[in-house]
Each structure stands twice: as C-alpha cells, then as structure tokens.
Amino acid sequence: MKGSKGKKDVAATPKKDSKELSKKAEETNLKRKKAAASKEEKAKKRQVRKDRKAKKDPNKPKRPPSAFFVFLEEFRKTYKSDNPGVKAVAAIGKAGGDKWK
C-alpha cells in the first residue's frame, strides 16, 4: 500500500467508552471530596485543641522577683542619680550586670 506509511488504522485504535470516562471523572471527584473533607477535619481538630488548652487566669498572682531583679531595681535608682545623662536602658542593664558579677 503506497501512501499509507504515516497513517494509522482508525479501526485498530480502541475508543474509550463514555462509561470509562465517567468512572474516571467520578474517581477524581471522590478524591477532591476526600481532600476537602480532610481539610475540614483538620480545621475541626485545630479548633478542639484550642478549646482544650487551658485559658490563662489574669488574676493569678505573679511569681516573686528573683534576687537579681531586686538588686537591679535598687541599682537603677542609684545609677540614675549618679549618671543623670545616661538614658539608655541597655547601658543601665549592662552596668548592673557587671556590678552583680
């Protein structure tokens, strides 16, 4: 047969049924629904975890200050009176830390 070199035989290629195509479409739809459902479940679980977490009591008393903080409170007063030009918090903290050592 001359001229049929690049042509395919139309009868030899199987055609897909509409049933097969609809099954694939259903499968992809199911996958999408499952993905959406899993996202919703994750969101619900996150909400449950937030609800389960204990709320902080604003009226709860704070812990007492450590020895360093008691020292630093007194040191700030004396340092500010001795050095009125220094306003930097970092400088006061550094000086207090050096004296604490």
What can you tell me about this protein's structure?
This protein has 101 residues and is an all-alpha fold. The chain contains 3 helices and no strands. It starts with 17 loop residues before the first helix and ends with a helix. The relative contact order is 0.05.
Task: Explain briefly what this protein structure is.
The chain is mainly alpha-helical and 101 residues long. It is 62% helix and 0% strand.
Classify the secondary structure makeup into a structural class: mainly alpha
- For the record, give the distance between the C-alpha atoms at the N and C termini, rounded to a whole number: 102 Å
Tell me roughly what share of residues is in helical segments.
Answer: 55-70%
Over the alpha carbons, how many angstroms does the gyration radius reach?
Answer: 38 Å
Shape field: elongated
Number of helices: 3
Mean pLDDT: 79
Record field, number of beta strands: 0
Q: What sequence of helices (H) and strands (E) makes up the elements?
A: HHH
Largest sheet: none
Portion of residues in beta strands equals under 5%
Low-confidence stretches: none
What order do the helices and strands come in, and which of them pair?
Elements (H helix, E strand, L loop, with lengths): L17 H35 L14 H16 L6 H12 L1
Helix pairs in contact: 2-3
Descriptive keywords:
single chain; 101 residues; mainly alpha; 62% helix
